[in-house]
Amino acid sequence: MTQHITIDPITRLEGHGKIEIFLDDRGDVERAILQVPELRGFEQFAVGRPVEEMPRITPRICGVCPTAHHMAATKAVDAVFGVSPTATARKLRELIYNAFFFEDHILHFFFLGGPDFVVGPQAPAAERNILGVLAKVGLDVGRRVIRIREDARGIMAYLCGKAIHPVCGLPGGVAKGLDEEHRVKFLGTAREAVEFAEFALGVFDDVVLKNKSYVDIVVGDAYTIKTYYMGLVDAKNRVEFYDGDLRVVDPEGREFAKFKPAEYLDHIAEHVEPWTYVKFPFLKKVGWKGFREGRDSGVYRVAPLARLNAADGMQTPRAQVHYDRMYAVLGGKPVHHTLAFHWARLIEALQAAERMVELLEDPAITGTDLRNLPTAIQGEGMGIVEAPRGVLIHHYSVDEKALVTKANLIVATIANAAAINMSIEKAAKAYIKGGQISEGLLNMAEMAFRPYDPCHGCGTHAWPGGLPTVVLIRDHTGAAVRTLRN
Amino acid sequence: MNPEPFEPRLVGFLCNWCSYTGADLAGTARLAYAPNVRIIRVMCSGRVDPQFVLKAFKEGADGVLISGCHPGDCHYQEGNYKALRRHRLLLRVLEQFGIEKERFRLEWVSASEGPKFQQVCNDFTAQVRKLGPLNLDGNGGGRHA
Amino acid sequence: MPEGKPKVAFYWCSSCGGCEESVVDLAEDILAVTAAVDIVFWPVALDFKKKDLEALPDKSIAVAFINGAIRMSEQEEMAHLLRRKAGLVVAHGACAHLGGIPGLANFWDKSAIFRTVYHDTVSTDNPAGTEPQTESIVDGKTLTLPEFWDTVRPLDAIIDVDYYLPGCAPHRDLIIKAVTAILEGKLPPKGSVLAPNTSCCDECSRNETKPEKMSIKEIKRPWEVIIDPQTCFLAQGLICMGPATRGGCGERCIEGNMPCRGCMGPTDQVFDQGAKFLSAFASILDSNDEKEIERLVGSIVDPAGTFYRFSLPSSLLGRKRKEARP
């Protein structure tokens, strides 16, 4: 008797998503599918808009990572006008961007992903949230998280108008500068951020790495898939968030491709399925072979672990120490264990904090040359950044009045969409056998997708309460047999 | 399908001092003209808020006319110039909404220009009749769904 | 949970999540609020099932904060359900209030959007011409998706809305004031927008720099000029929606040295924000000469997309005219 399990809605990731799990006659998992039931159509309604407005329109793709869209859009607009930011503007953009990376990653770890580990995957659902984390690490820590996040967002709000939907990006620079008083104040915040990131890594070490049963889960096969990895790197192949080349490594860790943003179309294409509104990016030179792992499948992964896999190191000294340690502990590069995304995320948060300090220690950041004014319209431009959740591509074509004629957006989380499906299916297959379904299913399935920190607002929603998941089990006639909820 | 020939429903905002008086004159002079324009008297063409124009279209008008004093003759000095600027800008916006510019007309008709008012009404009616009903929602209802 | 605490629900429709984020940005202030209410429904954080919501007595939820515009069938269903179960419904944020940025899709329809997204975008590889379906079969199993409507609507086009909390995203002070007012039972008349009834210009730090008679000779786009951080944007020839936009947002964009784009919507007396701004902006164009006026007006790019940036679904026309069905 075939059964069909629906988990609806998915929580703490896609605002709207459901998982369908299909069992075969033996009660083993045959297929698991994550459906995204939402579309807004930014690629269409961008058409006709003045291109310099795109950095103010596209952040509304996501209210959790609006800064990523703002920056990708601003860079694409730079390219449309054939201008680069001034030296000062470049520093300011990088400051804003690293502040954003830091606070976004920290929030995810403490409010969202962290509870899986800090409290433990076997813990009751009611405790696997920020309150459980606070009980484990102390209320003071909770207040520190809130405050450091507020301070980092204060830097973004000061320079960019608002933390939610920033406004300052213009072709050739930014709209607002930094004075000495604020440089000093923000430098204090940046130094605290470095300390806090080290502290968070310490928490991870105490709670996860020193606990053998967690480590076993991390390296276990249920949460491991072998894919290609893509990330932005600087000239020395180090992890880079704001600007660089894209590098892809294969499942054995060898460089497979390295290309400039303007060449992305030679390497990335998107596949369409009828059962979900999102598209699935894949590597063109390998081809779309379905939801499969391995060298022969064009599925690739992005975001923290992928970035560290695709690079040769970090840009900053303290982060580098942790990078070396992670690979030493997990058995070398590349690491395929999905749960290691949580670790890589904290290492990136540390780099972001260290970069903030570097940028703010440079007195030139208070310069007044904020814009290179465009003198011509180039016609087409790509802007690629690393969003916290992965490679983000904005590509615009414009007419002679610099109005958008075409827009192509490949949004970070989407590049992981295929991998998320595969991760869920693998975890489901490992934990559901012979028709035996238990509460553990909920925990284990959720743990398969949360490391990706899929975007769309959820990253912040771990206020008191349980994990709102419902598992509805129906038999082959569609009649409800059992309902499980946590 | 409506077998009756299409009769445009037109709304006309006429300024009190010039155009409304001019329309009156057409009436008293017994000049025959198309009866399709529903007249609304305003004190000045500059009083016409673009919201009125949009509301007229939304409520089923196939065309909207604003008529005021000739440039330089506005009873309130500048009102008709504002109407001119608003009209030109609203035409651009209407174009983006898929509404043909021929459906929104600005004319200058003075108090003594009865025959001109007659000609404007006949012209505008014929022009909109050729365009067909506005039919905003594509259903033939004329009202936006 | 102690008895007697009012029940509160949050839900998101066609949303970016920024309004949810704005609640989290209350930071430590939210602790006082969460101590005073019982959050019973917040799909992203709490145990939620549609059946649980359906099982609640009608009107048993004190307030439902609904953000996001209505663009898909599932969102419409949820809006109706929440309306039945909640005593008060607050349209939270610009999308629920006005339609928001997703409302720009109303210059197109479903088939145009699907054509672009699933076929014409340069990186899409779809030789079979696949499109998402409300029902599809995969390996013999049936999968369903909600329907994508042609037209984006604000929340009050679907259900009766008690209050509006404007902004994209709403300023934290407005959120705190709104929640406090609800908890203390000190609410303005039904249908009110929970923000001051004055325009942005009223509280703008650049108001004093406006000339006696504002008069625009040339219109500039933000990319063309170095924007003066002190002078009124309109006086610099830059389009700023301040005059037609409600204040109370903290002028954050202005402080970021960029002009207002109207996310708070209009003041109470206005039906159509874009038309009102058009009226004001046309009034201050500096010319009485027909040819010069036409030149100035011609130099404004994308007027509809600028004046209706956040408010297209709630405007008088609501969407671009549809082609007549045969």
Distance between the termini of chain B: 19 Å
**Tally of structural domains of chain C:** 3
CATH-derived topology of the largest domain in chain C: Rossmann fold
Strand percentage of chain B: 15-25%
The gyration radius over C-alpha positions of chain B equals 15 Å
Question: Which structural class fits the helix and strand makeup of chain B?
Answer: alpha/beta
Counted by DSSP, the helix tally of chain C is 12
CATH first level of the largest domain in chain C:
Alpha Beta
Number of strands of chain C: 9
Major sheet of chain C: size, sense and barrel closure? 5 strands, parallel
Given as residue ranges, the uncertain stretches of chain B (5+ residues, pLDDT < 50) are: none
Biggest β-sheet: strands ordered side by side in the sheet of chain B: 2-1-3-4
Summarize the structure in words.
The complex is a heterotrimer of chains A (486), B (145) and C (326). With 486 residues, chain A is α+β, with helices and mostly antiparallel strands. Chain A is built from 14 helices and 16 strands. Chain A has helices at residues 42-45, 54-57, 66-81, 87-118, 130-137, 139-160, 180-209, 212-219, 304-310, 317-330, 340-361, 412-415, 417-431, 439-449; strands spanning 4-7, 18-23, 29-35, 169-170, 173-174, 228-233, 245-249, 255-259, 268-271, 280-283, 300-301, 380-387, 390-398, 404-410, 470-474, 480-485. In chain A, a hairpin with a 5-residue loop joins strand 7 (245-249) and strand 8 (255-259). Chain A is globular and about 70 Å long. Residues 456-470 and 474-478 of chain A have low confidence and may be disordered. Chain B has one domain (28-131). Chain B has a four-stranded parallel β-sheet with strand order 2-1-3-4, sandwiched between helices. In chain B, helix 1 (19-28) packs across helix 4 (114-131). Chain C has 326 residues and is α/β, with parallel strands linked by helices. Chain C contains twelve helices and nine strands. In chain C, the strands form three sheets. Chain C has a five-stranded parallel β-sheet with strand order 2-1-3-5-9, sandwiched between helices. In chain C, strand 6 (135-138) and strand 7 (141-144) form a beta hairpin. In chain C, helix 2 packs parallel to helix 7 (172-184). At the A-C interface, strand 3, helix 1, helix 3, helix 6 and strand 9 of A face helix 1, helix 6 and helix 9 of C.
